Amino acid sequence: MDRILSSGQEHSPKRAAVKSKDTTPELFVRRLVHSLGYRYRLHVRSLPGTPDLVFPRLRKVINVNGCFWHMHGCARCRVPSSRRDYWIGKMQRNAARDKRTQRQLRRDGWGVMVIWECQIGASREDQLRTRIAGFLGKSEQGTSSQEG
Ligand SMILES: [Zn+2]
Fold it and tell me: For residues 26 and 76, is the Cβ–Cβ distance under 8 A?
């Protein structure tokens, strides 16, 4: 867990797997969440879509989505000029699956947060931390001393 890939971050969408594990944006989010004091499980296969970060006690999940593969619609989503139909079809299927799994999760009572690749970066760290803390609510630790 201590080893973090420090170099070789790829911007080419062709190199990024559809649902690659341990991608750099996800590590960034994990580190943030960890620093906030939350505990999570990774890639829980028993849940729809295998969410990236799962908070069982809070019944919440966070997905870290690559902009290209999940059709965010931002500047990172430019479709390669060759084989456009292939890429667009692939992206649309991914986006449709995202919607479906989110609906399933919400129907089962899970809170779902999506963090996009383009929203991640050192300059946005504070903003993202605030968003995550707002989504997850009170930290699991540090608030229990007054209770019980
Ligand atoms: Zn984006």
Answer: no
Cβ contacts of residue 67 below 8 Å, gap of 6+?
Answer: 74, 76, 77, 116, 117, 118
Q: How far is the CA of 78 from the centre of ligand 1 (A)?
A: 11
Residue 104 lies inside a defined structural domain of this protein: yes
Domain count, the chain: 1
**What is the whole-number distance in angstroms between the Cα of residue 76 and the centre of ligand 1?**
6
Dist. CA 146–CA 107, nearest whole Å: 33
Q: Domain for residue 88, yes or no? A: yes
Instruction: Give the separation between CA 128 and CA 50, rounded to whole angstroms.
Output: 22
Q: What is the CATH number of the domain that holds 69?
A: 3.40.960.10
pLDDT tens-digit profile of 6-56? 444 444 454 444 555 566 899 999 999 999 999 999 999 999 999 999 999
Say whether pTM exceeds 0.90.
no
